[in-house]
Amino acid sequence: MKQLKLTGFVIFFFFLTESLTLPTQPQDVDDVRITQKFIDDNIGYITIIAFAQYIQEASFEEVEMLVKAMTEYRDKCLADRTLPECSKLANEVLLENICAMEGLPQKYNFSHCCHKVDFERRLCFFHNKKADIGLLPPLPTLDPEEKCQTYKNNRESFLNNYVYEVSRRNPFVFAPTLLTVAARFEEMTKTCCEEQEKANCFQTKAEPFIYYLKALSSYQKNACRALMKFGRQILQSINIAILSQKFPKIGFKQLTSLLEDVSSKYDGCCEGDVVQCIRGRSKVMSHICSKQDSISSKIKDCCEKKIPERGECIIYSNKDDRPNDLSLREAKFIESDNVCEKRDADQANFMAEFLYEYSRRHPELSTPELLRIAKVYKDLLKECCNMENPPECYRHAENRFNETTEKSLKIVQRECEHFQNLGKDDLKYHYLINLTKLAPQLSTEELTFLGKEMVMALTTCCTLSEEFACVDNLVDLVLGELCGINENRNINPAVDHCCKTNFAFRRSCFESLEADKTYVPPSTSQGLFTFHADLCQAHNEELQRKKDRFLVNLVKLKPELAGEELWSLLADFTNVVEKCCKAQEPEACFKEEVFPALFSGIQLVFLVQKRKWNSPQDPASSLQRLPPSPSTLLQMAKFHPFLCLSNIPLCIHTTSSLSTHLLMDI
Ligand SMILES: *[C@@H]1O[C@H](CO)[C@@H](O)[C@H](O)[C@H]1NC(C)=O
Ligand SMILES: *[C@@H]1O[C@H](CO)[C@@H](O)[C@H](O)[C@H]1NC(C)=O
Ligand SMILES: *[C@@H]1O[C@H](CO)[C@@H](O)[C@H](O)[C@H]1NC(C)=O
C-alpha cells in the first residue's frame, strides 16, 4: 500500500524530485507529497523569487519570461518524467534557463557565472547578490484604489509583481518566508479592498507581516553569514542555543538528530537554492511534528496545519515550559571529577551538550550570550585541564559565566539608558553619527538603515521584561548587517576585525571601536548639500529621511567634526529649512542665502569654530532632556521607522511590540 502511494506521487508530482530519500513513516510520506505538490503549484513564485534574488536588476518583464519557461518545463516533465532533462536539479535548471535568456547575461553582467558549472556556478550567482539595494528604483507606491483595481483586473500579475519587488529588495530572505509574506499580502488585499477606509486598512494590516519579514530577514542573513564566514560549527551552536531554549524538554540525542535536518536546510537556503530551501524547511517541521511528544507541548495546533503555514506557526510558537525536574544548575559540567576526560574523548560533542544544557536552563539569555558562555567555558577548560587539580579550577566556572553575563547586562543597561535620555529622534542621530564615523565607506542608504534599525531595536526592547535578551539579540543582528553577508567590503579595518574575529563577542568588540583613521573623505561635497524648494513640499517622513541623509553625508565629508558640532549643524539645517520654506521665494532662499555659505568646506569649520567661541554653553546640553514619561515611551514603542526604509510599499506604525521568540528561524 505504502509502495503504491509512493509510486503514485512520483509519477504525479512533477520534476523537482531531488533529494527524495524515500521516507518510511506514513506521515512523512504524506509530508513529502504535500511539499512536492506545494512546490509544483508555486513554481511561478519560486522562479520569481530565485531570479529576482539572483539578478536584482532584471525587469519584471524578463522575470515573467523566465516564469513562462519554467512553467513549460514543469508541464513537460509532469507529462513525461523520463525525459532526460527532468532528472536535473531544479536550481540547476533554473540557472540554465537564466543563462539561456538572450542578451541577459551581458546586459546584467553575469556572463562569467554562466561560464561556470555546478557548485562554482551557484556560488558565482550567490556572490552576485547585492545587499545594498540603494541602486534599485524606489518602490512604486500605488494609491489603494488603484491597487484594488489592479488586483481585481489581473490578480496573478499583481501578486507576481509584488513577490518580484519584495524578493529583489530582500535577496537573502529564505523563500518560505517570502511565500508567507506573499500569502498574507493577498489576504490583506482581499480584505482591504472590500472596505471603505482602504488606506487605513492597508496600513494596519501590513504591519505584522512586514515586521515578520524584517525580523526573519535579519535573522536569516545573520545565520547565513555565520555559516559562510565562520563555518558549520558556529551555525550549529546558534541552532543548539535556539532550539534548546525553545524546546527545553528535548533530549540531547534527539536534538542532535534534529540538528542534522536543520543544518541541511540552511545549506540550501543560504545558498539561495529556493527549492531545496522549501524542502529543507518542510523536513525540519515534519521532524518536529512527528516527535512532538518529546519535543514541545506548545506546537500541537501548529502541527495540525498544512505545510507552508505549519512552519510559520512553529516559528511563532512560544518557548515550551521548563521541565519540572530540570535543576537550575547542571552539575555534570562543573562538579564532576572527570570533566577533562569527557571533553578529550569528543570535544565537539561535549561542547554541544554543554551549550544545550546551559541554554535550556536559561531562556532569559540572548543567543550571543549563550555562545559567549560556551566560549568562556571552553577557554576555562583549556586552562583548567592543564592544571594539577582541574576540578578545583573549573569548580568556579559559574562565577565566570555570571561575570560574562553581567558585563553584557551592563552594556544593555547603558544602551537603554541612552534611549530613555535621548528619545527616539536624538538617539537616531547619535547612531547615525556614530555608525558613519565607524564605517564611512558604507553607502548613505545603508548607514541610515542601520541607524534606524539600531533605534528600532532599543525602542522595541528597552521597555520589555525580556529587555536583556531582546536588546542583545537585536543589536547583534544590526551589527551583523553592518558586517554584511556577501562581500569583501572596503571597510574600516578595525570594524572588519570585529566582524571576523569572534562571532559571539562581536558586540563587545564594537564597543571599543573608534572612528576610522584610514578613511579619506571626498574632497568636494559634490552637490550633496544643495537643496531646493521641494524640501518644503516633502512630507514629514520624506523630510526626516532627507535630514538623516544630510547628517550621514555631513559626517562622511567632515568625519573630524566632533559630535556636538555635528549636532549643531543639524539644528542649523532644520532652522534653514524652516526659514526658507516660510520665505517669499524659498528657492532663492535656499540657493542664495544660507546653504552655500554654510557648507562650503572651510567656512563650515570656521563657522563651527566661531559658534564655539560665541557660545560657552555646550550645544549638546540642549539635548539633555528629562526622561520621557511613560506615555511618551508608549508612543515611541509604537513607531516603526525602519519599515519605511525597507522599501516595502507600506510605511506603517506598529501597535504591537516585538516578542523575542520571533527572532529565530529553524
Ligand atoms: C562585471 O562583473 C565583473 C566580475 O564580477 C567585474 O569585474 C566588472 O567590473 C563588472 N562590470 C561592470 C560594468 O559592472
Ligand atoms: C550566578 O547567577 C545566578 C543567577 O543570577 C545565581 O542564581 C547564581 O547563584 C550565581 N552563581 C554564582 C556562583 O555567583
Ligand atoms: C559610539 O558611541 C559609543 C557609546 O556612546 C562610544 O563609546 C564610541 O566611542 C562611539 N564611536 C564613535 C566612532 O564615535
Automatic annotation (TrEMBL):
A Pfam family reported for this protein in Swiss-Prot or TrEMBL: Serum_albumin
Signal peptide location: 1-21
Annotated keywords: Disulfide bond, Glycoprotein, Repeat, Secreted, Signal
SMART domains associated with the record: ALBUMIN
Alphabetical list of Gene3D superfamilies matching this protein: 1.10.246.10
Main location (coarse class): secreted
Family annotation (InterPro entries): ALB/AFP/VDB, Serum_albumin-like, Serum_albumin/AFP/Afamin, Serum_albumin_CS, Serum_albumin_N
Organism of derivation: Bos indicus x Bos taurus
GO molecular function: vitamin E binding
One CC-aspect GO term: cytoplasm
Source species, domain of life: Eukaryota
GO aspect biological process, one term: protein transport within extracellular region
Compartmental location: Secreted
Protein name: Afamin
All residue ranges annotated as the Albumin domain in the record: 19-210, 211-403, 404-596
